[in-house]
Amino acid sequence: MKYLSEYRNLEETKKILDEIHKITTREWNIMEICGGQTHSLVKNGILELLPEKVRMIHGPGCPVCVTPLNLIDKAIELLEQGVIVCSFGDMIRVPGSKKSLLEAKALGGDLRILYSPIEAVSIAKENPDKEVVFFAVGFETTAPANALSVLHAEKEGISNYSILASHVLVPPAMEAILDDKFCTIDAFLGAGHVCAIMGTKEYYPLVEKYKIPTVITGFEPLDLVQGIYLAVKQLEAGKYKLENQYSRIVKEEGNIAAINVINKIFEIGNREWRGIGEIPNSGYVIKDAYRKYDAEAKFNISNIKVPENPNCIAGEILRGIKKPNECEQFGKACKPSNPLGAPMVSSEGACAAYYHFSTQ
Amino acid sequence: MDINNLGFTTINLGHGSGGELTRNLLDKLIFSVFNNPFLNEKHDGAIVKIEGKIAISTDSFVITPIFFKGGNIGSLAVHGTVNDVAMCGAIPKYLSLAFIIEEGLDVGEFYNIIKSIKKAADESGVVIVTGDTKVVERGKGDKIFINTTGFGEVHPQANISVDHIKVGDKIIVNGFIAQHGMAIMSERKGLEFESDIESDSTNLNYLVKDLLDAFGDKIKLFRDPTRGGLGTVLHEIATDIELGVFLKEAYIPIEKQVAAACEMLGLDPMYVANEGVFIAIVDPSIENEVLALMRSHEKGKNASIIGEITDEHPNKVVLKSLIGGKRIVSPLVGEQLPRIC
Question: What is this structure's pTM?
Fold first, then answer.
């Protein structure tokens, strides 16, 4: 596959790793924002190939992990009300306060796993006597497709479709992490696919304000070691700037058509992040003009509030304060077969990545 | 046979009643397709001849969709059980065949399924000797479920057991992994994507027999990684023998289109199902000969030595990635789920 074998090349990767070893003189903490990057770092065994002094801290960029617990309970409530709930695959095993979507399905709920929210609109069309809800979670990456599904429903006059949305944004989360008094992050690897949509402009002020080197980075092994190399190079030189390692995908202006679709349906609002809490202006909320497509408004579910499992330290994991294997429950009370928190469920969750792949 | 003149176009509850409709279904469809002396006895069971030690395996097939690129639930029900018997180091001889049909199944579909069963059985050298047909109400099944039980004669030179595996033994796979699971995935509702990926569903018993003829007890283990894929099976072996399994990703054969589909859906091919793949764990003295024999065979032409047994990291499967890093291959938990982005 074009762009796969080239970016998994042993020789090229080794060359850059050697360079990282050569230039590293001090300890550096680099946070990769995106769960996809965490997954790739661990799956390809990159962490052990880095110098000991370069410590990767795993960021909050796993959509499944930061989706609030009460939202999962709301989706389950909809299933139990007889609504057809459509979801991305890795959401369905995340435990709610009492059960997961998968368990609710086993008890008779009509749950569909989809790749595209547009498919959910077709399901609504095929089932005019049923309500259909798409569980629209994710970062800026999935927002355009979710917004587009609402536009499709509007265009086709489909009134039995709505979305249960929990969209969060990367830059406010980066600021929240940097503002945390326990923060030890020296540099960021920016989330490549988020920037493919949004472009790079909004990161310049952040880099300036916090004087933090930031390298927008892809997901293949060669991307990641290049991103780390550029970050270490800046750190060692005492510089801070925004660099774009993933320029084959990420353009300065982003994907304008996608941004326009987002802006039509959503506006910026406060959002709760699982494990972190509410961050001001950190997510998308549905605009008033499209309120009839908002499942929280359409169904009586907005009052569901549930507490987190007190033994889960997902918040500290997501803010990069602790590593998964520093959690007392890791691999003991908390495993993928019995997760206490979301980072142990999704393959992009730092805990699951450590559990499945890490030799450390 | 003209299936348009059977007098019925769908299977209904009456066909499972044991009465005249059942007899009709058996005589006009099932017996006429299989037509062998065991079934023609029309008895409740079969009396068969088997020599030496007997290997038995049973499996139930509930796949959706029932027709897919490269096969259907019928051919799969034969291959799955034939291969399980072969993995015991045996030569499959006889199969039982039981259907649970949801009422309303189209007779044409059922006819195509039993024709595939007959073809797969003939190609595998096994005879369907006994069977059963039940029909359940609409909504109580999913079109058709099939159970097959296979009986085989253990190869006189075979001595297959995890207990014989030693440090240094080599792990050889006969061909491309993850074909079956991705073929099914490409046709599943909600996930459809266009591809030419075909299921690898096939019988492996002749290749297994040739290997046993040539190498006998130097072959320590055969195992076919069906559900759960290669990763799950290797993990099971590592924990059974309390030794480690070391793999090199670069040597694991995977067809480009399948790798791309896995990448697109966010699935790890190590956990994707196979129906025509097996691994042999063999004494290191014969690794190259085993590889050469496999590669000379149609069903082993993409064979590869993927790793070995080690006393480092006991109970764990460790994979050296393409870029030289190492990672654990843990067992699959639940079904593999597509990622969000």
Answer: 0.89
